[in-house]
Design goal:
binds NADP nicotinamide-adenine-dinucleotide phosphate, single chain, 7-stranded parallel sheet
């Protein structure tokens, strides 16, 4: 039986990966700090939970190690002593590493402008280890530093760069801005910039599909990791409303609308899309398109009476400012 260790295995990408591997007969160990985040279905399917703070050494001798917790060069160096003895290693990086022609990235003060779908050969931020990886400037730079340590090691490490990840168990599910409105029976939906913004979605189950492909094809490489399609915010809002059986009037705001109104998580123009050619060549077959794969998250969000303790309410608050919306609508 093949053995996998997933660091951060109780989180969004980790649990999708564990479930996929368990379903095809792998022996799976997941590492997290809090056992209460371990989904019951995973335990029933045979996953072992190990409570630890990162602890990559637990991966020694595994056929596959998936590191969902690698943010810095120091984290990457912790993995190196194991790699003689691991069949295939996957480090989860991010599209946040990419810079446009003038050096802007998705977390910079000025939004980036990429020429088209981003390929893995697109320039990245410079690696840095001198700023906190939990900051806007530190996140992408820390990921690049970690990627370089692993790729320069010569071991079969595959770096995956997902985009905006969706799935069951997310603590920052973008679709919440629409699901919450359905729950609150809002009759009007305001969308900034006409809802034309695009930020390529990456279903956690599609990330997991690519991880299984990499497990079967160990190698040293970088791969983008996103859904087969990249719907804009308007299309996403319609997918959510249709699935939850809700109707609202769409108010598509233009650039003259008051600042802050109609905010949503996909407000990127020009849109951000990842080129998925390289993953396809390796044999990646996504589970489904955005509308198909997002259903599990929508059903979870709509049915749960308790969001995860780490849920990022602060991030969503400005996007759910009903008072400002109602004031605006009253003056139309
Ligand atoms: N989510 C996205 O949209 C996105 C996009 C691009 C890239 N990524 C990258 O994908 C990776 C995984 O992200 P995710 O969204 O799946 O994360 P997540 O949902 O926040 O899950 C992280 C998991 O790791 C566990 N964990 C956190 N710190 C730990 C530690 N020190 N030791 C052991 N376990 C720890 C957490 O559980 P406990 O807190 O209980 O330990 C949690 O289960 C990250 O590297 C992130 O940068 C994410």
């Amino acid at each position: 039986m093949s053995r996998a260790v997933v660091l951060g295995g109780t989180g969004l990408i980790g649990r999708a990966t564990a479930r996929r591997l368990l379903a095809v007969g792998w022996d799976v160990t997941v590492v997290g700090r809090d056992s209460s985040r371990m989904p019951e279905d995973m335990a029933i399917a045979g996953a072992r939970f190990v409570a630890a703070d990162r602890a990559p050494a637990i991966g020694a001798g595994a056929d596959l190690v998936v590191d969902c917790l690698c943010f810095t060069a120091a984290h990457a160096r912790e993995l190196l002593p194991l790699l003689d003895d691991v069949g295939s290693t996957v480090m989860i990086s991010s599209k946040a590493v990419y810079v446009d022609a003038v050096g802007n990235h998705v977390n910079s003060a000025v939004a980036p402008s990429f020429d088209g779908p981003i390929r893995e050969s697109q320039p990245t931020m410079a690696p840095r280890g001198d700023i906190d990886y939990r900051t806007r400037d530190g996140y992408g730079a820390g990921k690049v530093a970690a990627e370089r340590v692993l790729l320069d090691s010569g071991y079969p490490v595959t770096v995956l760069r997902p985009s905006k990840v969706h799935g069951e168990g997310s603590v920052k599910p973008g679709e919440w801005v629409f699901v919450k409105r359905v729950a609150d029976r809002r009759e009007v939906l305001l969308l900034s910039r006409g809802g034309r913004g695009v930020d390529h979605p990456s279903a956690a189950v599609n990330v997991a599909a690519l991880i299984e492909t990499v497990a079967e094809n160990p190698g040293r490489r970088v791969l983008n990791c996103a859904d087969p399609d990249a719907p804009d915010a308007l299309a996403i809002s319609r997918t959510v409303a249709k699935h939850l059986g809700h109707r609202w009037e769409e108010v598509l705001l233009d650039d003259h609308a008051p600042a802050g109104l109609g905010r949503h998580p996909w407000d990127r123009l020009p849109g951000i899309r990842l080129d998925m050619t390289a993953a396809g060549r390796l044999g990646y077959r996504p589970v489904g398109d955005y509308a198909t794969t997002v259903i599990a998250e929508l059903d979870w969000l709509a049915s749960t009476d308790r969001l995860p303790p780490a849920f990022d309410h602060e991030y969503f608050a400005p996007m759910l400012n009903y008072t400002a919306e109602d004031d605006y609508l009253a003056t139309r």
